[in-house]
Design goal:
Elements lengths: L4 H6 L11 H9 L2 E7 L3 H4 L6 H16 L3 E7 L9 H5 L16 H10 L2 E5 L5 H12 L3 E9 L1 H15 L4 E10 L3 H13 L3 E2 L1
Parallel strand pairs: 1-2, 1-4, 2-3, 4-5, 5-6
Helix pairs in contact: 7-8, 8-9
Length: 206
């Protein structure tokens, strides 16, 4: 198996030919992690300029999911700037939202507190999917340190599906899951349509 550079350094090795004790190999297997990605649970998407009752309704479920998750939790934030209305997204969706450092850009308080308590990573992304997140996960996967990824959040039919499919494209053999009870779409109909798209692309929808 491919040992991570950090593990090799810890045990005094640096070359692929270095002999690693069996006990270390077992330890390396045990540190394979599951990752939960909480997509864009921000005020503007929950009860702000693009909020919906469906988004409000999943907040408590996402909080419980994060609390109970056995693995690493990562958050994403949709992040725009003052020129939003001049961008392609702004022209197609002319509703100002998630402008960096505004109240609407912040993660909802219930989850922001958990994010800070757990020391979670947070990826700010200027578009629907985060290439930086996918690349970092791919590095973990290539090092043999990533077992599965699960996604929750908003909006099922925009940023959630974009990130799920990007991660699957980067790592086609990785198990990618989605908890549909912890997601909300622009409308219930679009939520269901996105779930079907992800099922077709071999995302495990629960």
């Amino acid at each position: 198996m491919n040992l991570s550079d950090s593990t090799r350094r810890f045990y005094g090795g640096g070359k692929k030919t270095d002999r690693i004790p069996c006990a270390v190999l077992r330890k390396e297997i045990l540190i394979m992690k599951n990752v939960l990605i909480v997509v864009d649970m921000q005020k503007d998407f929950v009860n702000g300029s693009l909020g919906t009752k469906e988004a409000v309704a999943i907040v408590d479920a996402v909080v419980e999911k994060v609390k109970a998750f056995d693995g690493e939790v990562i958050f994403t934030r949709d992040t725009h700037f003052e020129n939003y209305m001049e961008t392609q997204e702004g022209k197609n969706l002319p509703v100002v939202h998630c402008i960096k450092d505004t109240e609407g850009w912040e993660i909802v308080p219930e989850l922001k507190t958990l994010c800070e308590e757990k020391g979670c990573k947070c990826y700010d992304k200027p578009t629907f999917g985060s290439t930086a997140l996918a690349e970092d996960l791919k590095n973990l996967y290539d090092a043999g340190e990533l077992e599965a990824v699960e996604l929750v959040g908003i909006c099922t039919d925009i940023c959630v599906v974009s990130n799920a499919l990007m991660i699957k494209a980067f790592m086609p053999e990785l198990q990618v899951e989605l908890d549909s009870a912890c997601c909300a779409g622009v409308t219930p109909e679009k939520h269901e349509a996105a779930l079907e798209t992800m099922r077709s692309c071999q995302i495990l929808v629960k």
